Amino acid sequence: MKLLQVELSDKLEALMAALVQEGWFRSADEVIQVALIEFLRRRRFDLLEKQQREDIAWALRQKGTSP
Amino acid sequence: MGAAAEGDVPMRRIVSGTGPLLSLTEARALDLLGRAGQVHVPEVVAAEMEDETPGWSEQRPAWIVVKALAGPYRDEAVAWQEAGLLGVREAEAVALARQLKADWLLTDDAAARLFGRTFGLEVHGSLAIVLWAAAVRHLGPAEADAALIRLAKSPFWISAKVLREARATLKDIFR
Fold it and tell me: How many domains does chain B have?
């Protein structure tokens, strides 16, 4: 487990504190964790396309290399 | 498109998740993996392959090796899974790639690819295997194009746009 220090604007910090206080999350850590998971879920197909394009570019660079 | 001859197998150490194994099998392109190196899979991936393809454990090619996760790597896989960041199979594949210091981690899962990259692993997906096989001339132009089309019809997800780009890249590869 790594400890990260995250810089947030006052507004975002207040929003995060309110969400925790109202019981939506157990802690600020969980807010960040859920935000990351949600990002991955929502952008899954965009990410996949980007990664597949990276694979295409990589394969082209393998041309002429030894197997 | 046969498997590599004995003594001709590259020493590349590869760890694969379930996705590439299933998709490449369905695309009749699994042999290409054997030409890339020795493929290690975590136990949970082997179990899923057995569920999906009964008899897989007995029939799998000799170049696919099932490997158990060592303690600390198992713990990190469990932590990623419990945090909801990765599914169990993806978590174990990333952890096994770290344990074995794999040359390639193969996964078609976007989050696992990101994770693997953050740990300094070289991560590729099913598409890369077919294109790589073309680039190093394990496949000819027509074979490679047919394999791409079969891959697109397998469980592997690819948009029509990226498939067009991949097929166009074959022309550059064989130019």
Answer: 2
Per-residue pLDDT tens for B122-157? Answer: 999 999 999 999 999 999 999 999 999 999 999 999
The neighbour count for residue A63, using CB atoms within 10 Å, is 17
Q: Which residue has the higher pLDDT, B83 or B119?
A: B119
Segment A1-12 mean pLDDT: 85
A23, part of any domain? no
Distances (CA, A) of B157 to A21, A48, B14, B105, B154: 41, 9, 22, 18, 8
Enclosing domain of residue B40 = 13-126
What residue type is A42 in one-letter code? Answer: R
Q: Which of A25, A27, A34, A52 to mutate to test the interface with B (most CBs of B within 10 A)?
A: A52
CB atoms A37 and B84 under 8 Å: yes
Which residues of B have a CB under 8 Å from any CB of A?
A: 10, 35-36, 79, 83-85, 108, 110-111, 113-114, 123-125, 127-128, 131-132, 134-138, 157-159, 161-162, 165-166, 169, 172-173
| Co-location of B120 and B132 in the same domain | no
Averaged over A48-64, what is the pLDDT?
A: 96
Please count the structural domains in chain A. Answer: 1
Residues B111 and B78 in one domain: yes
User: Each residue of B107-120: pLDDT tens digit?
Assistant: 999 999 999 999 99
Q: What is the pTM of this model?
A: 0.86
Alpha-carbon distance B80 to A36, whole Å? 12
**Residues in Cβ contact with B74 at an 8 Å cutoff, skipping those fewer than 6 apart:** B92, B95
> Does the distance separating the beta carbons of B157 and A55 come in below 8 Å?
no
Kindly report the CATH number assigned to the domain that includes residue B102.
3.40.50.1010
- A56: containing domain: 29-61
